[in-house]
# Entry
Amino acid sequence: MTVLICGSTGRLGRSVTSFFRKQTTVVAPTRNEIDFTSKEALRDLIEAEKPVTVINCAAWTDVDGCEKNPELAKKLNTDLPQHLSEVIENIDSHLIQISTDFVFDGQTDKPYNEEHLPNPISIYGQTKLEGEKAAGPDATVIRTSWLQAPDELNMVKGILEGFKKAGPLELPNDRQANPTFIEDLLPIIKCFAESRFRGVVHATNEGTTNWCEFAKFIAEKTNNDPTRITPSEPRTLNRVAARPAFSALDNEVIRREKIQPIRHHHDAVLEILNKVN
Ligand SMILES: NC(=O)c1ccc[n+]([C@@H]2O[C@H](COP(=O)([O-])OP(=O)(O)OC[C@H]3O[C@@H](n4cnc5c(N)ncnc54)[C@H](OP(=O)(O)O)[C@@H]3O)[C@@H](O)[C@H]2O)c1
# Structure
């Protein structure tokens, strides 16, 4: 029961790889071992390994980089899932394509469910949306947002580090979405891999916020001074691509499928705070 993971060196891919390694055989080639832009290389790998599930965590996630180099963005974000869906056609394999809240334009104040029509406003969002379509009708497309990894300086740890330094703690407050803790996403990926669900699934922790509000919650729980939290000047963020101002996702399919709901991000934050204190 081999699981093939593409993008195993990335923020999400590292956790997905170690999670599935605890339960089954995992093949997780790096870009030094396989050219992810070559359909032939993917075909050779997939025909040799015959994975029961392919989880595609590989993408070009540099939103501003994608805006400057749409060709490379298309190769990773659209052509790769296209090639994966084509080469698994002849074996009994299920594709999980990881996608993003950036497929939406953000012109709303109500969380988007899976029925809402996407309307990307960046090359990253466009190429990821094309990648969802390219993954084909049999794939599970899991859209998520603001991924927080357990194994690196995530926003909770970053904000705690910020409080240790003197002066204001500058954070963006111009976007609202749902922080998503990867450890809460892993069981959802497993569940949809097993059920071979066809279609789009929104999967984020509950609770919409911006990074200033998020930091205020941490300040309140750790006796730090919330007045030190200051919104970043947008021009200091040096953004090239447009971002959706509001891209919270509503996990309607998870509710409909009667899958254990993903907890509120506050609960995930409190768990981390308990561990670090
Ligand atoms: N991060 C977020 O907050 C977020 C939010 C919503 C959705 N997502 C989605 O979640 C998925 C995983 O994101 P992530 O944050 O884990 O991404 P990431 O940390 O940027 O990792 C991307 C992965 O793709 C590989 N990759 C990128 N360019 C490549 C190239 N030219 N050739 C070969 N491999 C290449 C990287 O390999 P190297 O390590 O060798 O570069 C890495 O393994 C993506 O589909 C993303 O769209 C992420």
